[in-house]
Fold these 4 entries.
Entry 1:
Amino acid sequence: MSGFTAFSTAAARRLARGMRTIARITFTVAGATVILGATARVVDAQTEPSHKRGWEFIVNSGTVVPTGDQRDAIARGKLTAAQLSYVVHPALAITATVGWARSRDIARVDDPKLDVFTYDLGAEVRAPHQALGRGLTVRPFAGIGAGARSYNYRSLDVDATHNLAAYASAGGEVGVRRVRLRVEARDYVTGFKPLAGNGPAATRNDVAMMLGLRLSTR
């Protein structure tokens, strides 16, 4: 009976973690959808009169923080991410992101170094610039997107694993004349295959936090 009780307890814990993950995904996607819709309505009413379509490029630094079950699989890692955006409207930009996080596989005894690559494409809804005085402006944004996530051991002869990924994001851009400071947080939901050996795939979560500087041409 003790073995059955232990099994039932473990199963209940796994079910509870799964329900929390599903709830988190649902609230994240729903919240991002509400933000995007509300922001779009505001921007439609406050469209900036002078706007030209164009490209924006920024290189961000930051960190990836595993959450939930992912904390038992990989370590928190430093992140470098390059973003290329095409601004199609003052309220909308299409953003492609390639990110590289330096992590470790903490599920193995030797904690081997692990490169985590993320590549995705998303839509970003932007509110109008709000002037704060003395050339200082702020502009919040929210976005959603999807792509892929790869895990590759840096020095072990093990094949990389590849998984689907989706995210919801929120952040803001603070401007001082032509200088822009961009802050963004992304909540990722990804697939996760065993990094080595066989086993069932799972759904995992992590949060990416990014900070970068760019010069605006307008």
Entry 2:
Amino acid sequence: MSGDLPAPAPPVNPETERFWDATADGTLLLERCEACGTTFHYPRARCPECGAPDTQWFEASGRGTVYSYTVTRQTGGDYADATPFVLAYVELEEGPRMMTNLVDCDPDDLAVGRSVSVVFHDTGEGNALPRFTPD
């Protein structure tokens, strides 16, 4: 990759605050529904499967596999100097898929199914962006 990716601060609201606070400590949190057992990401107040409000946070392993990805070779704005960069869906060991960036890798050497692990890029705003690097 030719440049470092920007790490813009994410929008934080009451439903996502605990998730983003944990990233500052290098912790990836997920939620699990107490009613139906569904594990999910992105944070929300109710289970996306059954609608129950009873969810519990837990620490994820930080490991997964590349489910899908695309290489961006041309763009503008804050990311113009970071090309090429990889936008991907990572399927976490716990089940949910997470949209993220793959970093510290050659985009031409990637493949669906490749093992990856989470890394955190500080936003400078009290949280960090979870991104993934190949194992």
Entry 3:
Amino acid sequence: MLFGDPRTFAIEIYHEPSSVDSRGFGRMCLHTSNKTIGDIFENHCSLHDAIARITTSASNIDSLWHDEFQGKDDQEIFKILDEYLYIGDHALWPCYGHFDFLTNSGEQFDDTKTFLYRSPLTDQLHLLYQCSSEPPASSSFPTNSFLESANGLKHWFQHEISKPPARLYPVDPFESEKA
């Protein structure tokens, strides 16, 4: 499934339950400005944490700004958040933790740091990311494109995990004779 437009912001996701108890596992990545973030080829990853973070960010969209960001570019804001949340004093999580986006949210985002903030002047969201050893980069897109993608994802995922589990193994031809 693809929610959104990869030229601005989209979430690509596939549900791959491999057993009755593994609903909510699959593949996932983000597309923004034709850049892919996350590994769509990493199979059978838990999707729960990443989806929870996306829907929480969508619900709290108006809190994704801090006055300390005023007058700073995306690279400077990435450096501030990285220092406050991952390099320096981790006691700053209560104040800045909500800017952390999908870092450590599943195997599909291993080796990736992501932060999200909303510019109060332009109604644009800024996705700040660093994949592996690459330098930090960013992408901006309309807040509405993120909200539409997040909403579609939330409803799709709720439907997927509420489905009765499919029988994953062939029916035993001798099962009816055992009764």
Entry 4:
Amino acid sequence: MDTPILLLIILIVYFVTICILKKIGYKKKIVGNKNSNCCPKCNGVLDRVKRKNSDHLINILTFQMFGFKRYSCNNCGWNGLRWENKF
């Protein structure tokens, strides 16, 4: 198989996989009754924290479809990425 065709197939499969992950809500922001942004572990309040360089790389690799932001939990100390549904 030719290299350009193989690269195109890999890119298409990668893009479809990213679209499926977004559709099922992978790492999506959790909205609770009292809070607009809840911790995935303890349902506590999340606060925005400064992004790492790897977070910018993840946004580039996902074609900025997710718009990941880094959060930290006040209760349990969880720290990670979440994205907001813009549509």
